[in-house]
Structures are given as C-alpha cells and as structure tokens.
Amino acid sequence: MDDNRIIELYFARNGQAVVETDIKYGTYCRTIARRIVLNREDAEECVNDAYIGVWNAVPPSRPDNLKLFVGVITRNVSLDRLDYNRAAKRGDGIVAAIDELASVLSDGGSPVDDTVALREGVNAFLGGLDRRTRIIFMRRYWYAMPIAEIAEGLKLGERNVRVILHRTRRKFAAYLKKEGLMQ
Hints:
This protein is mostly helical. It has two domains: 3-87, Orthogonal Bundle (Rna Polymerase Sigma Factor, Chain: A); 95-178, Butyryl-CoA Dehydrogenase, subunit A, domain 3 (Up-down Bundle). 74% of the residues lie in helices and 0% in strands. The chain is built from nine helices and no strands. It has helices at 3-11, 16-37, 40-57, 66-87, 95-105, 115-127, 131-141, 147-154, 158-178. Helix 1 (3-11) packs across helix 2 (16-37) and helix 3 (40-57) crosses helix 4. The protein is globular, with a radius of gyration of 18 Å. The N and C termini lie far apart (46 Å). The model has no long low-confidence stretch (mean pLDDT 86).
C-alpha cells in the first residue's frame, strides 16, 4: 500500500493504518530500535510505542515522507528507552557514538536555541559531504551502527572508518562554529 493511502487510513482513524505501517516499515523501525537499545524485546516495545506515537501525531500532522516520519519517532522512542535503561545500568549501544559527537561538540559551546536553523545547518553540512563520508557519518550517528559493521558493509578497514569519522566530527564542529550554530 502506498504512503498516501496509509496516511488516509490514519486520518480516518482506521486501525488498519498501523497494520499497514508495520507491513511496510516494520523491519526498518525494528532495525533502528535494535541498534539503539541492543535488546530485541525492548526494540519491539519501542516500535509498538512508535506506532502509538504515529497514531497520535497523524492527524493533525500529514507527513511528506512517512518512512522518515515513522523512523524519527522510532528513534526518539528508542533513545528515551536507552536513557531509561542507562539509568538502570543497562544498555550501551549508542552511548559510544553519542559520546564521540559530544566530545567534539562540547568544546564548541552550546547549540543555538533556533532548532530550525540548527536542523538546516546540519542538513547543509551533510549535503556538502561526499557520498561515502555521508553514509559513514549517518550510519554511525543516526543508525548507531558499530564501526566494524560500517567497515564491513563498505568494504573498508575499521581504522579507515575511525579516521573518516574523526575528521568529519572535527569538520562538523568547525562548520557549526563558522555558521554561528554553536555559541
């Protein structure tokens, strides 16, 4: 079923919308959740909670890209679960990736309050990267993939991936400062 039809089901408050969303994007959402919470059962709960989030958001929202919309909600729910798990001394999957970015960005001050400007700045930065670097950056910091898995998927050495990530983080911090997106 196409995305517009699924969105219409949400607007009609038809429960089949969730079923169709799961059929079309369930594997995608479970992959996002599993990479973050590192636990199949927690990932399943995160995906179910994400579907509730989509149900509550559509309507009034009418997403232009349903896959991205569902993916963002799944990621946010999973990050919330990770915070909960970390408080309980569990979970460590995305922590290393977040710490990598935080260590570079913490030297640059705090981000500006304008989230729209920040989002546009991040998108512009990513758009300026070459394809391979952008893929590596997104796989590490959006999908929380381990470096070994990124290296294997792109047929690169782990050391090469680490160097690319290190250089890209430095460029990212410099870009944010230059654009006035870090105070």
